[in-house]
């Protein structure tokens, strides 16, 4: 893994969540972006508590240089879909599990977007994969970053083999 870019670099990814209580899950997205050296910003934007902020964020993100939005929310999780409806940027949705229903409510709210407004939904609590998917998207126009994503996958492969060797004694 490379070192994170200097924090003053203009953010390429917006990591947004419906509540600060989602950070326990969404910090994994921020961590994986940092691991790949991708400058990003973190913001609480609630679809139902701060609807004006939601609209402003979605409409201004692309003009500010954001290339991908990762949005996490729990319960009746309309944040990712609402963001996607107001921006042409790719939106990755993270279903955040709450106390009830094991996150199935969040998953179904995010994944079942009607045709026309896509949200790329990761697994329940899958914020780490959201960060990696954002890296892969940005890697389509950044060879160095794509190389780092490939190196990461190779490292995962090597870890499996190491564990295999240990199992065999
Ligand atoms: C959703 O409501 C948030 O995304 C969060 O997952 C959930 C609960 O929010 P808090 O009551 O913890 O602020 O909008």
Order of helices and strands: EHEHEHEHEHH
Helix content: 40-55%
- How does the helix and strand content classify structurally? alpha/beta
Total DSSP E strands: 5
Beta-strand residue fraction: 5-15%
CATH C-level: Alpha Beta
Mean pLDDT: 94
Summed up, the helix count is: 6
Task: Using the 3D structure, state the CATH architecture.
Answer: 3-Layer(aba) Sandwich
At the fold tier of CATH, the topology name is Rossmann fold
Describe this structure in words.
The protein is an alpha/beta fold and 169 residues long. The chain has one domain: Rossmann fold. The protein has helices at residues 23-35, 51-61, 79-85, 104-111, 127-139, 143-168; strands at residues 13-17, 40-44, 68-74, 91-96, 120-121. It has a 5-stranded parallel beta sheet, sandwiched between helices. α1 runs parallel beside α5 and α2 (51-61) packs across α3 (79-85). The longest helix has 26 residues, at 143-168. It is globular and about 55 Å long. Residues 17-19, 21-22, 46, 73-75, 96, 98 line the site of 5-O-phosphono-beta-D-ribofuranose.
Throw out a few tags for this protein.
single chain; 169 residues; alpha/beta; Rossmann fold; 5-stranded parallel sheet; 15% strand; binds 5-O-phosphono-beta-D-ribofuranose; PurE_ClassI
Show the helix and strand layout.
Layout: E1 13-17, H1 23-35, E2 40-44, H2 51-61, E3 68-74, H3 79-85, E4 91-96, H4 104-111, E5 120-121, H5 127-139, H6 143-168
Parallel strand pairs: 1-2, 1-3, 3-4, 4-5
Helix pairs in contact: 1-5, 2-3, 5-6
Residues 17-19, 21-22, 46, 73-75, 96, 98 line the site of 5-O-phosphono-beta-D-ribofuranose.
Keywords: Isomerase, Purine biosynthesis
Catalytic activity: 5-carboxyamino-1-(5-phospho-D-ribosyl)imidazole + H(+) = 5-amino-1-(5-phospho-D-ribosyl)imidazole-4-carboxylate
Domain PurE: 11-160
């Amino acid at each position: 893994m490379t070192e994170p870019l200097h924090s003053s670099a203009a953010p390429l990814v917006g990591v947004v969540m419906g509540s600060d209580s989602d950070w326990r899950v969404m910090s994994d997205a921020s961590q994986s972006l940092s691991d790949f050296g991708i400058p990003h910003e973190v913001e609480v934007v609630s679809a139902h508590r701060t609807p004006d902020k939601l609209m402003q964020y979605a409409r201004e993100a692309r003009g500010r240089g954001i290339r991908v939005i990762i949005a996490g929310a729990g319960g009746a999780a309309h944040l990712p879909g609402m963001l996607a409806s107001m921006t042409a940027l790719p939106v990755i949705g993270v279903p955040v599990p709450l106390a009830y229903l094991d996150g199935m409510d969040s998953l179904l709210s995010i994944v079942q977007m009607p045709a026309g407004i896509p949200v790329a939904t990761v697994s329940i609590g899958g914020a780490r994969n959201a960060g990696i998917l954002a890296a892969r998207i940005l890697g389509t126009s950044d060879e160095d970053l794509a190389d780092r994503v490939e190196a990461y996958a190779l490292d995962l492969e090597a870890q499996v083999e190491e564990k295999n060797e240990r199992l065999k004694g």
